[in-house]
Amino acid sequence: MKICFVTEFFVPYYNGGGEHRYYDLAKRLVQQGHEIDLLTMKIAGDLKKEDIDGITVHHIGPKIENIPYRTGKDFIQYFFSVVKWLLTHKYDIIDAQAYSPLLSAYVGSKLKRTPLIGVIYDTSTTNNDQWLQSGNTASRMEKILTKIKYDKILTISPPTKESLINDFGVDEDNIKVIYTGVDVKKHDSVIEEDVVENQIIFVGRLAPHKHPDDLINVVDKIKEKIPNIKLVIVGRGQLKEKLLKLVEEKNLGDYVTFKQDLTDEELIREMKKSEMLVLPSTREGFGMVLAEANCCHKPVIAYKSGGTTEVIDDNVTGFLIEPKDTEQLREKIELLLVDKQLQHQMGENGRRKVEEKYDWDKLSKQYIQLVEEILNEK
C-alpha cells in the first residue's frame, strides 16, 4: 500500500506531538511493508528529499527559516505545492493533519479521486489562546475545515470526537478514534538511574494555552515548604522571553531551568530524572507527553482539558486539576513530592495503562485496519 502523509513540519526539525505521531506511525507502517511518502515545507535548508527510518520525506513549497512561524505567503505557496504534488503522484490514500494541510490535501484528493483521511487532534471550541499565530483567521479556518467531507476524520481522543460532534456538527459516523501512542521499547532502552529529588518537568510548546507561567508561579510558592524543588521546562515558543523575565522577577534562577531542542533520548532521560511531569494546558487533543512520562514510571498532573482526561485516570495514574486552579495544582504537586510511596504507585499504574492502551505497535495495526475499511468502501 502506498500512503502520503501531509504536514507542515516533521522531525527532527520540529518535535511537536503531531509530527512525532506521524513519525512513530509511519516508520511502523514501513516495517510492515507499506510505502510512505511524507510532504513537509522546506525546513532543512536546500534539502529536497531524505530518508528517515524508511519514510521518504519530501521538502516542498516555501523555505521556512524560523520554525514554526509562517507567513500568509508561505501558506499559499505550500497549498499550491501540495496540490501539484498530489496531482502528479499516485497513492492509495492520503492522510493530512490539521489544519492548513487539510485544505490542499482535500483539493488534491478530489481532483485525483484518492481517498483522504483528515486528522484533527483537538478543537478550539470558544478559546483562541491556543493558536500560535493569526488566532482569528485560524479560528475561522477551523470552522471551515471541520466541515469538509473527508472519507474519514481521524482523531486521537474521545473528548475531541465529542467536540467535533457537538461544537462543529460533524457526523459521528465519519469520525474514528485511534489514540496516539508511545514507543515503549525506545523509552525502555534509555537508561537513567539518577533521579533528582523534588524535580518536576514540563514538556511542550511555550505557547499561551500551555500556561507554563502557572507552573512557575506555583513553584515560587512551593519553594517555601520544599526549598530544594526544581522545575525543568523543555520547549521553545513565543512565551520564552516572558517566562525568562518572570523567573528573573521572582528570583527563581536557582529553581527553574530551561531546555530546548533535545533529542528523543535526552528528553526521555530528563523525564526519568524527574519525579513527575506537570502539564497545565487548557487545550490538549491528547497530551502525549503525559503518556510518555507514565511510560517512564512517572506520575502526571494536568488541567482537565480535552484528551488529558482520557490519558490520566484521576487519583490512579496522576491528578486532574480544574483549569487555572493554581491552588489545587500546588496542593497536588506538594502531595506527590512529599508522599514518595504514592508517587511511585501512580507511576507504576501509569506504566501499566500505557502498555495496555498506548503502545504504537498495537495502534499502527488499528490504523491499517481503518485504511483497509475506507478502501473497501470505494
Explain what you see.
Helix 1 crosses helix 14, helix 2 runs parallel beside helix 3 and helix 7 (212-222) crosses helix 12. An eight-stranded mixed sheet has the order 3-4-2-1-5-6-7-8, sandwiched between helices. A six-stranded parallel sheet has the order 11-10-9-12-13-14, with helices on both faces. The chain is built from 14 helices and 14 strands. 43% of the residues lie in helices and 18% in strands. The two termini are 15 Å apart. The protein has 378 residues and is an alpha/beta fold. Helix 10 (288-295) links the parallel strand 12 (276-279) and strand 13.
Keywords, separated by commas or semicolons:
single chain, 378 residues, 43% helix, 14 strands, six-stranded parallel sheet, alpha/beta
Distance separating the two termini: 15 Å
Uncertain regions spanning at least 5 consecutive residues: 126-135
What is the average of the pLDDT values?
Answer: 93
Shape: globular
Q: Which series of helices and strands comes N to C?
A: EHEEEHEHEHEHEHEHEHEHEHEHEHHH
Strand order of the largest sheet: 3-4-2-1-5-6-7-8
Q: What's the total helix number?
A: 14
Estimated helix fraction = 40-55%
